[in-house]
Amino acid sequence: MSILIRTPDGGRLALEPRPGDTLARTIFLSRLWHGVPLCSGLGKCGLCRVRYVADPPAPTREELKKLGQTSLDQGWRLSCLHPSEPCEVEIPTPVRSLRAMRTLAPASGDFALAVDLGTTSIHWTALSGDTPVATGQELNPQTGLGSEIMSRLAVAATAEGRFVLRGLILDRLAEIATMAARNMGGVCTALAVSGNPAMTYILLGMKPDGLASAPYALTYAGDDERKLGAGLPPAYIPPLLAPFVGADISAGLTAIEYGDEPKFPFLLADLGTNGEFVLALSPRKRLVASVPMGPALEGVGLSCGRTAGPGAITAFRLTPKGLAPVRFEGDSANGPPTGMTGTGYLSLTALLLRHGVLDDTGHFATGSTPLAARLAARLTTLAGEPALALDDALLLPASDVEEILKVKAAFNLAMSALLAEAGLAPARLAVLHIAGALGEHVSLDDLETLGFLPPGLGARTIKAGNTSLKGTGMLATDPGARAFARTLPDTITALDLAADTTFGDRFMQRMRFTYVD
């Protein structure tokens, strides 16, 4: 017996059940959900919803909270919470992530391609000489097989999983190169790809045994060229620095330091699904650490989370009329918002905290002003969970606040651990570079309010943007940049935060919207 899929255009598709997999994963592998930012089994995003034509399985508590009783009675379920077994379901029109490309400068002819391969997103730049001429970003097509590093590595533990994961990303890299070649009338003559070690291993089809369980170890150090596939030139992979501090950080340090005179000591915080941190004490001494942060900062895995694109809310303001959302740049604002980006969540949480609608433990409160009190009056429950009702049918449940608090605690822990190891107070940092998912659009005031940063450090913080992509472009085109990156591994001391027996206690101490030294 098969899994019969009714598609939104009236088509029908038969899929073979995959014992041990979820229904969502089986549908994802059929390519029906490419570009959909699935939370991959968390039961939070709701983007894998399907309607069972007959005999729906018993609903879970997560489904009641996300879908509501009426939808459950109609046969709607979250396919990530049910096994890949024979059934007949219909799927709604997929909510796909933005796949964007921008022309930066007129150019034609051959080009180099720089790729920042993130766990959740791919960012790329085409360069004519050393000049960026086009850039783009999109969802990593592997996301439906694991929304964060360890779940992705679990898939990569088998030969079949590695083959599928690698094929997804290689196919997309080839398509990006072909698209750029068509637009520029040339061919891709050089390629550099940066990512964390897990993404790099998967890209190269390598067994990730050293990354999947403790004691973690690198079996591949990077700083070489690897042939990826037909139609692509050999790809330069920058040096990997520690088991979870990768080529993206080598590229980021190249962007900050190569050809410049940076002020020491500085901290580079590259924030994404995996948070990677470097405390650069001098040109010859750098401490590194990493912490899992999850995909929340990229708008994945939250109840109303969405990746950046038309229809998404990126920030909030409190006006005399109440909450006023700020829509994605260039959004025509036609129709209700589709959800909130990671920066939208941070903006909302910081606003609620400033006005007493949240306390520093992340619990909802009554508000510290009459306007805030009117906002707090919108507190409701969602399947027994406290939630704040926003406009346009959006909700902020307590569990989403907890996810933001976990991200804050992870950031705070990594930063304070590096500073403590070096014997530095935050006031002695010359510069903090915020890079990665937050590195361009986040409000520094919000980060201080939420306790990511100690008071006053925002004045010495630079929103550095995608330093990994910038540095990867330099490494794709400049031999001197590669020579600089080659020196980095000998300057690195890695802190294994998770191996510290006090890690759990220190993390819990930072589960407050206050910076903890």
UniProtKB/TrEMBL annotation:
Residues 111-257 form the RACo-like middle region domain. Pfam families: RACo_C_ter (PF14574), Raco_middle (PF17651). This is Iron-sulfur cluster-binding protein, putative. The lineage of its organism: Bacteria, Pseudomonadati, Thermodesulfobacteriota, Desulfovibrionia, Desulfovibrionales. Residues 267-513 form the RACo C-terminal domain. GO terms for molecular function: iron-sulfur cluster binding. InterPro entries: 2Fe-2S_ferredoxin-like_sf, 2Fe-2S_ferredoxin-type, Beta-grasp_dom_sf, Corrinoid_activation_enz, Raco-like_middle, Raco-like_middle_sf, RACo_C.
